[in-house]
Amino acid sequence: MSSEFGKLLRVSVFGESHGPAVGVLMDGLPSGEAVDIAELQRFLDRRRPGQDALSTSRREADVPRFLSGLSDGRTNGFPLLAVLENRDQRPGDYNAFRDVPRPGHADYTAFVKWRGAADMRGGGHFSGRLTAPLCVAGGIAKQILARRGIYSGAHLYRVADVFDHAFPLRPTEELFDALAGKPFPVLSDAAGEAMRAAVEKARRESDSVGGVVECAAIGIPAGWGGPMFEGMESRLSAALFGIPAVKGVEFGAGFAASGLSGSRNNDPFALEQGRVVTTSNHSGGILGGITDGMPLLLRAAFKPVPSIARPQRSVNLATGEEVTLTIPGRHDACVAQRAAPVVEAVTAAVVLDVALEYGGLNGHTERSRAD
Amino acid sequence: MSSEFGKLLRVSVFGESHGPAVGVLMDGLPSGEAVDIAELQRFLDRRRPGQDALSTSRREADVPRFLSGLSDGRTNGFPLLAVLENRDQRPGDYNAFRDVPRPGHADYTAFVKWRGAADMRGGGHFSGRLTAPLCVAGGIAKQILARRGIYSGAHLYRVADVFDHAFPLRPTEELFDALAGKPFPVLSDAAGEAMRAAVEKARRESDSVGGVVECAAIGIPAGWGGPMFEGMESRLSAALFGIPAVKGVEFGAGFAASGLSGSRNNDPFALEQGRVVTTSNHSGGILGGITDGMPLLLRAAFKPVPSIARPQRSVNLATGEEVTLTIPGRHDACVAQRAAPVVEAVTAAVVLDVALEYGGLNGHTERSRAD
Amino acid sequence: MSSEFGKLLRVSVFGESHGPAVGVLMDGLPSGEAVDIAELQRFLDRRRPGQDALSTSRREADVPRFLSGLSDGRTNGFPLLAVLENRDQRPGDYNAFRDVPRPGHADYTAFVKWRGAADMRGGGHFSGRLTAPLCVAGGIAKQILARRGIYSGAHLYRVADVFDHAFPLRPTEELFDALAGKPFPVLSDAAGEAMRAAVEKARRESDSVGGVVECAAIGIPAGWGGPMFEGMESRLSAALFGIPAVKGVEFGAGFAASGLSGSRNNDPFALEQGRVVTTSNHSGGILGGITDGMPLLLRAAFKPVPSIARPQRSVNLATGEEVTLTIPGRHDACVAQRAAPVVEAVTAAVVLDVALEYGGLNGHTERSRAD
Amino acid sequence: MSSEFGKLLRVSVFGESHGPAVGVLMDGLPSGEAVDIAELQRFLDRRRPGQDALSTSRREADVPRFLSGLSDGRTNGFPLLAVLENRDQRPGDYNAFRDVPRPGHADYTAFVKWRGAADMRGGGHFSGRLTAPLCVAGGIAKQILARRGIYSGAHLYRVADVFDHAFPLRPTEELFDALAGKPFPVLSDAAGEAMRAAVEKARRESDSVGGVVECAAIGIPAGWGGPMFEGMESRLSAALFGIPAVKGVEFGAGFAASGLSGSRNNDPFALEQGRVVTTSNHSGGILGGITDGMPLLLRAAFKPVPSIARPQRSVNLATGEEVTLTIPGRHDACVAQRAAPVVEAVTAAVVLDVALEYGGLNGHTERSRAD
Predict the structure, then answer these.
(1) Contact C175/C153 with Cβ under 8 angstroms?
(2) In this structure, are residues A289 and B106 in contact, taking their beta carbons and an 8 Å threshold?
(3) Are D343 and D134 within 8 A, CB to CB?
(4) Are strands A296-302 and A211-218 parallel, antiparallel or unpaired?
(5) CB-based contact (8 Å) between B362 and chain C?
(6) Which residues touch B363 (CB under 8 Å, ≥6 apart)?
(7) Complex ipTM, two decimals?
(8) Is B298 in contact with B232 (CB distance < 8 Å)?
């Protein structure tokens, strides 16, 4: 692996939070696909902090520059490279902690792995900033999939102790569009308000909260994927766990299935206008690692933001002493809010990769068949 | 992917439940490693149904035959192939369902993917039988890791509504050995009894239950893994989701972290005889995708066994009618019991792969050096 | 890599010359493909020493046993494992050289890599015996490709100082069949006789000769492959150099192109019944890494067999002394004779892999389209 | 594959000849390695056309800009992205041939693969311009290897009918430095003069010539690589054939070995101050896919530049007629001259990848150890 995933569509991410730029390389896109830049920017903006008082006050211009892969607004089949310049940084916020690792961060482990050579300012290559290029990749993937009737959406299933409604059995494109238009991606606005309050409370208390993003995709034909390690869950989880702060991934009923009986968890088959469907979707759209035609349904759990302004216990790696550290600076109290588009983006990229492998999209648009 | 995983240590599984044999190919093992066949067999027997009335009554001789890769009881560095012949089959149990997919099984999806050519008797290549060769691979990996001070253990964290104790902050080799010696792998015998009762109850009711396996590994140095898609969670989950019936994977506090505050979830650093440790382990031993030296801790959620003897709603793919089907035959009411060694095996194989990449084990047991 | 190659069709080889068996695992075959066992055996027999006085006198029963992947004579879509038991061995032939590496063999390098743990009897996993399972894989691939109008053939382009005719611009299926039927695969029988004489002469002199195999494939549509490292030459050479004794690979005019002028080497485009063709084929059917519809044409150079009965200079790794060693036993004086089917097999496996990626064969036979 | 190669060190190239930029992404570099920018630029300049009247008159500023992966002049362990802006283009040179493929170019095959969507101006992603970022990657790899006593060099072994001397049995770092300092990389200046004359002659005749680059690397320890598809030849050839215009790759005696006897081609072992060496090097430093400690020696054959100003026969893909086309513009009469640093660069990148896998460089320059 490394900072890349995918089989036919290889997605590689690069960049450090305080380096010149971050970006993404996509190798294996089919050619002739129109990329609507305005639509892509709207998708990226769903992630951009600053739209909402709850997120970090750091502003960045997340307008990607394409160095290759596009000609006259369409993919040309060659590797696509998108760059996002880093502009709004306050290096001073992060300089004091070279020797004192922040709990919950990768400072300590990066130090051990790279003996201090890693540029960990702002989190380096571990930073949430790296989710921006993931969204560029996923945004492009979503457009290509949408042309083939595959749509996705994501919402905040949980923030702190507040739960949103779950996706219905058959989420629609309209539901996904409605979610995308909301600044705070929830199905229940009441839940959304409670979530905002929980985040605000954490912020005031110099603390943070975690959350769970639920993502669904519709229109995926049955038959994609394979058994064992070739399965959809393996491919999706390998990519989803690459998103910083993700500590759990589940499909369909997920961990809840462990408490269900078989008679309850099994999804009965039925016919609907000649199509095979299931009357429940505890499988999350996947049976034996292969799609069954029902909506793909997954959840990613995000741990609470580790950067909090409270004093925390740590050690000074240079002096070998236990110390107390306090992290100043601007921090999100919850990443899950903007993680919804990131989870959706990664899911879309993996689904496109799978579509290329099983759906005949390879080469040029005319060859795509969902059947 | 496919039916294989790993980067330097490639593990490929083959075989169908009702074919001649199942087995595993391991490519990339270091040479000179002794393989204690008796110890390996004991590990395999932890999985073997028939030791315990709760499991399926099917008996199989899970004694692997090594066709390559071992010389005089030691790995020779060449690809290792182990074969487990299939002997105890009752094909009649499965023949009636070619056209009528069983809910919760891969029958339907395999039909779509391979248009009926897949040999789905007994579940084909999707069968739980494929976990036997995974245990051969993991059993060998465990022995190699143990020589380097890396030990692992797994227990039933949950079965139905019954919860076991969680692993302590610092599980020991002794604790792992004790677990391995129990027919029912639990920390609390009282919980074990309640679990057995729940399984028995389900069996009597022609139903099934699910469970969660918790696995820990100690002795892994800090610094292994990498950021983003190179992370430990990505590598482990890609392999764990390849185990049939797994629908969720989490690390450390996992999904529970989404409900914790940052001040609670962050693991404070401290010193212990000069070593950097954390005083809690919500990270599960992984920060930023890289090991931090604390015990690796993960959980895999298993859905309830889909083969239940109750009538279920399905469709006849040949006639296009909705039908009711009833599955006869011998079925486990819960796979989680024997899934504990399987989760441990897969975890060990991935940890060995990581050890080969970062720990200098490549080539021969005396670490290779360039100059 | 390792002992496997391929992207969608993964081919892994295992086994040691003096171990219990050798074999091959093929993961990613499309399902529903009939495998004609008799035809496969005929292809394997083209490789089998003993048909011809020129080859080694060792007899082996190269009849593969399929442990998985086939049901009722057809691929079932699951990983396919074929085993070839090793039977006719004379271990005594090889035991005396543990400490004294044979020049031209992998004894020394395997010793360094695996510190003596490698089982190098008979060459271990480096042995030409490993070409038998490669032929099983390639034989199956050939059958699948033939159903789609893709045919291949190989002949001895050169043995010692004797050259055969080259393939014509448009080799035909009939030409390939004629070659396959000959015990000594040459286009010119006169050249064949001269080659046999050269090999016999070497044998009598306790020496050996090398050769070049030329392989061609017809019926491959234009448009398969990709630029740079995704190219056909990269994929084919990576697999071909995995064949023991191969020290050079070229495509089309190959090394000779380096001495041609551009005006000569460029293949002019023309039309033939509406199809784009070239009037020469110095490109070997590949332009920019992508097939152009003309016959694929490649050559693999085999070094002379290193096992010769003459005294050779070596060193005793245990004592640190320079010594003279003499290798007894039965040895081919030239592998190129039986290497022709091996080159053809590997080429077919790679072409099938490419066909799966670009030709829509994934999943089931009905989805293949060559267009 | 795709436009990337490598196992632990992944090298991905992007960019089109007439797009905004070309560049390279290197993922997996060890951290803490100093990158001497001036030395890197000198290496890049060995490739840069314009230094010499023989090459194309196009001028480009090949000064890479690093967007990630370097901190304070050292690798930081994160993915490294280098960008080379495209500046000196004359799009008018290439616009007339959208429908009429140039013989010997990828126009036709790219058209079939991407149905005209590929941006083939200037050759698009197939252009020799893509060798510039390859040299950035290789230049960095060379510096890292040099610190470990591994040095490489390349010269023009052949241009048209003119042959240079071959590398001696034991090329030295001094020899490599001398070669690097020459504008025309040859061992024999007389041969160099004859080569220049041959290229000039071709240029005057509106034709082109091909060539062969020979590359050697010293200081590689024995024991790196593996049998079969894991071998050094497989890894190197897969990358070398990714260089535009390469049609043949050989190691050691290569194709010439096919005409040698075994007694001649085998390299006898001997001792030299306690070290095992061979007294000849027909193996090219590789036995059984594993390095033997002798110099790595390989050759890559380049076809003659396909862009020549003479009229050539082609077809008009839009009208379906056979036509004659003439290519105006500025063209090299021979790429082999600047291909020498490219072959050296690709070789270095692969050797570094192998060093990371077998030589314990992973993580940080001080070799990582597990326990």
Answers:
(1) yes
(2) yes
(3) no
(4) antiparallel
(5) no
(6) B30, B31, B77, C113, C114, C115, D223, D358
(7) 0.94
(8) no
Residues 236-275 of A with CB under 8 A from B: 237-239, 241-242, 244, 246-255, 257-271, 274
Mapped onto helix, strand or coil, the DSSP state of residue D37 is helix
Residue D137 touches chain C, beta carbons under 8 Å: no
Domains of chain B, residue spans: 4-363
Categorise residue A360: left if φ over 0, alpha if ψ from -120 to 50, beta otherwise. left
Count of positions (residues) in chain D: 371
Mean pLDDT of chain C: 89
Q: Do B209 and A237 touch (CB under 8 A)?
A: no
Write the pLDDT tens digit of every residue in D70-129. 999 999 999 999 999 988 655 555 555 678 999 999 999 988 988 767 667 767 776 788
Class of domain B4-363: alpha beta
| D190-215: average pLDDT | 95
Beta strands (DSSP E) in chain C are: 4-5, 10-15, 21-27, 65-68, 70-71, 74-75, 80-85, 151-159, 162-163, 211-218, 246-251, 269-272, 275-278, 286-287, 290-291, 296-302, 311-316, 321-326
Nearest CA to A25 out of C103, C38, D4 is that of D4
CB-based burial of residue C95 (10 Å sphere; 0-12 exposed, 13-18 middle, 19+ buried)?
Answer: exposed
For chain C, the maximum distance between any two Cα atoms, rounded to a whole number of angstroms, is: 71
Strands across the sheet with C65-68, in order? Answer: C4-5, C10-15, C21-27, C80-85, C65-68
Distance of CA D173 to the CA centre of its chain: 19
Q: Chain C within 8 Å of D220 (Cβ-Cβ)?
A: no
Beta carbons within 8 Å of A260's beta carbon, 6+ residues apart = A253, A282, B209, B210, B303, B304
Tell me the torsion sign for CA atoms C349, C351, C352, C358: positive
Tokens matching residue D245: 């215009």
φ, ψ dihedrals at D80, nearest 5°:
-105, 125
Q: Which residues contact C126 (CB under 8 A, 6 or more apart)?
A: C105, C106, C110, C120, C244, D227, D228, D288, D289
pLDDT at A371 (0 to 100) = 21
- The size of chain C, in residues, is 371
The b-or-e profile of C213-236 (16+ CB within 10 A means b, else e) is bbbbbbbbbbbbbbbbbbbbbbbb
Which amino acid type is present at position B136? V
What are the distances in angstroms from CA C132 to CA B143, C22, C83, C341?
Answer: 32, 8, 10, 10
In the three-class reduction of DSSP (H, G, I as helix; E, B as strand; rest coil), residue D105 is classed as coil
In the chain, the amino acid numbered D79 is P
Looking at residue C123, the DSSP 8-state letter turns out to be G
Provide the 8-state DSSP code for D147.
Answer: T
At residue B257 the predicted structure's pLDDT band, cuts being 50, 70 and 90, is: very high
Distances (CA, A) of C25 to C4, C12, C83, C236: 9, 5, 9, 19
The answer to whether D24 and D66 have CB atoms below 8 angstroms apart is: no
As a whole number of Å, the end-to-end CA separation of chain C is 31
- SS3 for C39? helix
Nearest CA to A121 among A131, A129, A112?
A129
**What does the alpha-carbon distance between residue B148 and residue C253 come to, in Å, rounded to a whole number?**
53
pLDDT score at A57: 45
Contact D12, D3 (CB under 8 A): yes
C278 has which bridge partners? C269
Q: Is the dihedral of CA A225, A230, A234, A238 positive or negative?
A: negative
C33 neighbors C75 (Cβ within 8 angstroms): yes
Q: Which of A2, A76, A125 sits opposite D118 (nearest CB)?
A: A76
Q: Which amino acid is at D161?
A: D
How is residue B248 annotated by DSSP? Answer: E
pLDDT at B126 > cutoff 90: no
| Facing residue for A15 by CB, picked from D2, D32, D68 | D68
Residue B123 distance to chain A (closest CA, Å) = 10
Of D75, D106, D128, D35, which Cα lies nearest the Cα of D333? D128
Residue C267 CA to residue C262 CA, distance in Å, equals 9
Whether B239 has a pLDDT exceeding 70, the answer reads yes
